[in-house]
Design a protein that fits this description.
Blueprint: E1 3-5, E2 23-28, E3 31-32, E4 36-38, E5 44-45, H1 47-59, E6 62-67, H2 70-78, E7 84-85, H3 93-96, E8 99-101, E9 106-115, E10 131-135, H4 139-151, E11 154-158, H5 161-169, E12 175-179, H6 180-188, E13 193-195, E14 200-205, E15 208-210, H7 215-231, H8 233-243, H9 256-296, H10 301-315, H11 319-334, H12 340-366, H13 369-377, H14 382-412, H15 424-435, H16 438-468
Parallel strand pairs: 2-6, 2-7, 10-11, 10-12
Antiparallel strand pairs: 1-6, 3-4, 4-5, 7-15, 8-15, 9-12, 9-13, 9-14
Helix pairs in contact: 1-7, 1-8, 9-10, 9-12, 9-15, 9-16, 10-12, 11-12, 12-14, 13-14, 14-16, 15-16
Length: 474
């Protein structure tokens, strides 16, 4: 997240009056170099990021950048979770029906690339019967779909650039369609591809706000854009990333350990967020799971059915759908904003809580019914019998399953990268967009997950042995 307070410009520049106490939230996709990516200092850089910074300075307003990925950025704007989007977003008639766009700030185009060692595919005619990688919601995807019948190929959609580039390099797809400046920048920085076609005329990029919302911000962007074009700063920004050789290659040492050393702070920051998300959500999920687990075995049918409905909903739908619904759907329906972190905690807590409720139910029902009958025959009240007789025995059964759920929840945090939470998987995506070393970075990320999960597994094994030896106090 980046916040910037502009400085007042000279009277020669036109300036729009904005709410100076407001910090505008601008969504982006920080895996779209050279328009937006994160440098080794953790700063948002690229054409789009530098433009926003220059315009904010010219127009004297505060903003914060929210990195959520392209598709999620568009959904966030549609659901009023953010004030604006700048993410190499093409101005199309369909989008203009939903959003208000600034004056164009970049004229793009689409180009095709193949693996650098591929000499078989040199034109669209060579795509017949083949798979072609595209990025969901982009101009490249639109162009590919417009010609797929003519050239008889199958577009395969991905959510990020690195995934579609890797699909080509591994041979699953023979080519990729993407915006010319993005592919050209990647090729220059060693992404393993080469351009094989001329640039097709495409749409222009624009800064977007909601329809009939933040008109003052849109006006300020247009005014600031005109000012920096006049001053020459606009051209300087573009030349930094497209014309000159100043494009930054962060990790000079591309060996396995060199990448770890160069990206250690980012990786640890992502791991820290993953552990924090897991710890908080599991603490909440434990309470929810125990509550609904007892409701699940209640003698009251109404209480029991409430628990069944909750458990079935959250166990019967994908976690990614739950994350989107909680982050985008609920705030839209009730007209409020919810932070990605809060949405992630709620999603994980409710999802893990449903599974823990079943663990509690299974643990209680695993205790022989004769135990309760014997306790009651000795005059113990139901609650006392549960607390002193049933639950201590049920815990023996539940502990391994609870630890297993901890592991599952920790791995599930990776799904939250889709709504922009900077956990370990998201940090990997951002590093890959910067260093173009997907195989090694994903191996590093996988090893980090493995180490943490193995530690949890050893804890589970230790607790099971303690249980077996009867050393756990009841």
């Amino acid at each position: 997240m980046s916040t910037y307070l502009g400085e007042t410009q000279s009277s020669a520049s036109k300036q729009v009056t904005l709410d100076r106490d407001k910090t505008y939230t601008i969504a982006t996709d920080t895996t779209f170099a050279p328009f937006e990516f994160v440098n080794k200092k953790g700063e948002f850089v690229g054409i789009d990021m530098d433009l926003v910074k220059a315009i904010a300075k010219d127009q004297n307003f505060m903003y914060e950048i929210k990195s959520v990925g392209f598709n999620s950025a568009v959904q966030a704007l549609e659901s009023n979770q953010v004030d604006a989007v700048i993410a190499g977003m093409s101005i199309t008639p369909e989008r203009k029906a939903k959003f208000a766009f600034s004056d164009p700030y970049f004229d793009s185009g689409v180009v095709m690339a193949v693996a650098e060692d591929d000499d078989q595919v040199t034109s669209y005619d060579d795509l017949k019967g083949k798979r072609v990688a595209v990025k969901t919601g982009t101009e490249g995807a639109t162009f590919a779909n417009s010609i797929k019948q003519k050239y008889d190929f199958t577009p395969v959609a991905f959510d990020d650039s690195d995934s579609m580039y890797n699909d080509v390099k591994t041979g699953n797809s023979v080519a990729v369609f993407d915006d010319y400046p993005v592919l050209a920048y990647g090729v220059k920085n060693g992404n393993g591809l080469k351009l094989v076609t001329d640039k097709e005329k495409g749409n222009s990029y624009g800064f977007a706000v909601g329809k009939n919302k933040n008109a003052d911000l849109l006006t300020a962007f247009n005014t600031g854009l005109a000012n920096i074009k006049t001053s020459g700063e606009y051209q300087k920004i573009q030349d930094t990333y497209l014309k000159t050789d100043k494009a930054e290659t962060v990790a000079k040492d591309k060996t396995f350990f060199g990448l770890i050393k160069a990206n250690y702070p980012d990786l640890m920051k992502g791991l820290g967020m993953t552990i924090l998300l897991t710890a908080i959500s599991l603490a909440i999920a434990s309470v929810v799971g125990i509550l609904f687990g007892f409701m699940r075995v209640s003698a009251n049918p109404f209480v029991r059915w409430i628990s069944i409905i909750y458990i079935d909903i959250f166990r019967g739908t994908p976690l990614i759908v739950q994350a989107f619904f909680i982050y985008f759907g609920v705030p839209t329906a009730f007209d409020f904003r919810l932070s990605a972190f809060a949405a992630g905690i709620i999603t994980l807590s409710l999802n893990a809580g449903a599974y823990m409720a079943e663990i509690v139910r299974g643990g209680i029902q695993s205790v022989d019914s004769g135990q309760m009958e014997a306790a009651r025959s000795l005059g113990l009240p139901y609650k006392t019998a549960m607390r002193r007789v049933i639950i201590p025995q049920a815990i023996r059964v539940m502990i391994p399953s609870f630890v297993n759920q901890f592991v599952m929840t920790l791995k599930d945090t990776s799904i939250l990268s889709i709504i922009g939470i900077y956990e370990l998987t998201q940090s990997g995506k951002i590093i890959i967009a910067r260093d173009l070393e997907s195989l090694k970075i994903w191996l590093i990320v996988g090893i980090m997950y493995f180490i943490v999960i193995m530690c949890l597994t050893k804890v589970s094994d230790f607790l099971e042995r303690r249980m077996a030896n009867g050393k756990v106090k009841r």
